[in-house]
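Catalogue entry: protein

Sequence with per-residue tokens
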Amino acid sequence: MEVEVNPQSQIQPMEVEQIDRRPAALGDLRILPDEILCAILTYLTPRDVARLSCVSSVMYILCKEEPLWMSLCIDNADRQLQYKGSWKRTALDQLNVTFENNEFCQKPQKPLHFNGFNSMFLYCRLYRCYTSLNGFYYDTGNVEREKNLSIEEFRDKYDGQKPVLIGGLADTWPARTTWTPEELLKKYGDTAFKLSQRSRHKIKMKLKDYVSYMKVQHDEDPLYIFDEKFGEAAPELLKDYSIPNMFKEDFFDVLDRDQRPPFRWLIMGPERSGASWHVDPALTSAWNTLLCGRKRWALYPPGRVPLGVTVHVNEEDGDVNIESPSSLQWWLDFYPLLPEEDKPIECTQLPGETIFVPSGWWHCVLNLETTVAVTQNFVNSKNFEFVCLDMAPGYRHKGVCRAGLLALDDISIEDVRKNMLFLESGLGCSDLSRKDKRIRVHQPEVSENGSTIDGVSKFIDLTEMEFSYDINFLAMFLDKEQDHYTSLWSSSNSIGQREMREWLSKLWVGKPENRDLVWKGACLALNADRWYTHVTEICNFHGLPLPTDDERLPVGTGSNPVYLAGDNVIKILVEEGLEACLHSLGTELEFYSSLQKINSPLRDHIPSVLASGILYMENGLCKVQYWDGKGVPEVIANFTPLVEHEQADYPFGLQSKRQFDYRKAGMSLPELVKACSGATIWPYVITQRCKGKIYAQIRDSMSWKDTLNLASFLGEQMRNLHLVPCPALNDSTLLETQQKAVSDANGNIKNDEDKVWAPAEWNIFLRTLNRKKKDVCDRLTKWGDPIPRELFEKVEEYIPDDLLKVDMGVRSCTWIHSDIMDDNIHMEPCSLTSHSGGANDNPELIDNVSANGSDLSEPIHAWHPTHILDFSGLSVGDPILDLIPIYLDIFRGDPLLLKQFLDSYKLPFVKTGVNSSAKSNRFQRLSYRVMCYCILHDENILGAIFGTWKKLRMAKSWEEVEEAVWGDLNSYTGSC
């Protein structure tokens, strides 16, 4: 039975002396303030909270709080939420809890009274749940209001400078009259929209359920609709408004809809809801048009952190984390404390008005009544460099962009002044020190003389310097040690590394009138100037033509700088540091040599290697040394941490790479980051340039027949790859095992207890997987959604404790490419190829087809796969590993394409006579084995799986996922 608590029992004034029931009711927990206790309760399960409420009267009060049950409910909610009148009832409904005497429960019960307990924290929270915001209506604020503002006036006076309220932009929109909760409900009542809440879960609610929730809720921070995919959920809504002319310039429009980051949102919320203090992602600018209701806005210029807000910047990847009170709490608790000179720029936005928020401005929004609005973020010529700066690797510049000089608590004013003088004189800027690696909490500190300092450091008088939100000033704080290709990519960035490079490349080609600006942005984000200097030196050394002006930026979506120069492709290997790059190139060159020795047909489908070498810096000058993979290059002979290598044709080839991969699997994230940073030596390889396009650029326009042909091609070439003999292995990691065990007749190693161990050739491969298994839970937690949290705790039970003790049943270890994705498959128009796959003799047609994403001169309706690219990730292991990227990325989970591939591949994945669906050894079940590989993969393969098979986001076991994704493999036997 549910018993209501009288709120007044929590806030009774101490008019007469009463016994404080808190010590007896809480025991040792009494030393904790109520806000800490309430925060701890949010980490419990609903069932545990219900049990804890029975412990004592005070625990009953704390466990009865609706904000607590709201938090518990959202954390445990499925993808779609339905409010049941209270958050406790909603949470119990999620647990399928039924009330035996529902009629009795609906009768009003006598409230419980608990004298002797008072809580200001609970009182304030209760007040925020029921307060009215009428008092905010009448102050129009101090943001400038304009009407009939021309594009030129907007750009000259406001764009990139200050916010403005613009009237009249929505007067002709259908949304001006139809975007009210009542009208939208008529047409979109059954449409589910995404909610904004303080949870990493993506929760949706049908509009009819949400409107019902708005009418009855009394939450201190109400849920509100904030859906960036409303156009996909309800396409007709996009016809109800248009982008105002002054905001139409958007550099993200060169990207396809599924490539560009979230940029438009439908917003709907009740009174007291809103957006807490934040800076828009990637330092984009935004416009927000209100269609009904009223909103209260507060804004601060860039670099001025609002009171009560805490900014943290991750020292490894620059991810910016902002801790802020709810919008309502800030207005009620912090705003009144501000002296007049520290108050924000503010205004009340009225229906039909559009507010412009410039790049980098802090803003907070409070809905004064039920509101409906639409907003879009954009990148134009005024903020483009700021966006590129924010994408650049490192951490300090991100903090300075948001927290201003507060981020510089570990740098003396003299250092900053010196850099500013260099900036003003045009002499460049000196390096800034990196003593402390964190932006501390922005809270007033009391100095030794008792005065408060509004900032993070009492050692810097910030009033002596004026913060300049200028791209040249902010660029001073870029960390020169950080590089786009080798540094961690901040999770707060709105697009990934590959997408960033592709975006800049498309801007370079598609907006030639803006090339000066695009080049500046590329230098900030990609170090484009440095890499272009390096590739120029390589071209000069080998007598190659320089990249044309159209090819000045690196191309491709890989993890290394790649340039086009005439008929050549130059790839500089930088990913994961020098040692990893040497092993990548050494193994690749050894593999090409193996292909030539056996005359494998695969060599006709790999771009020819024309040259290779080492690029390095010496005394500030860029130099080149030839290296064909044989021997240890002189320039790195004494480089640490490289170890001594055995005398071999390819000292950095497959044998050494296996040892390196094993060591790397045991490294922590900081160790990996350190290994990648600070290198001034880079291997490179020059290959033949292919004509045509990569599959990623044409996949949506290809016919089904051509796609089936591609699947057959991949099956045939993977067969050729997996038949290439591996060099003889002599792994040092086998020694200990071999000393304690002897081989049986089948070549398997047995220990003294007759337990089956892995075949010798599998030893280091499985040892490497064992190392990856140690931190599998941490990686799943880091990846997060859309992986079901329920599977996190089941992963260690699903994967074998020790893979070395599992009878693999696999036929052999083979070469594996490991990265056959849609950007590593090269396609040519069928008009250029004969039936045998070679190019025809029409040079005019060939010249009209360009590579790496350039437009073809005429539309092509049929394509033929010709080459597999990028063998820098070569390794040795289970051949089924190559199926993972092919099936998930190229085939996108299509079982028909998988069947076509297997029909062409033909080779078995297990030894002759082994039944792949046998239950006696689940690891011999192909579906189980490949599922384990997906979980232990270095990349977030699981994100791709749960992104493709959306129904699996509700999966209760790994076996369920295994069967749905890989179950078809269990009927495949192949032929010898």
Q: What stands out?
A: The longest strand covers residues 609-618. The radius of gyration is 31 Å.
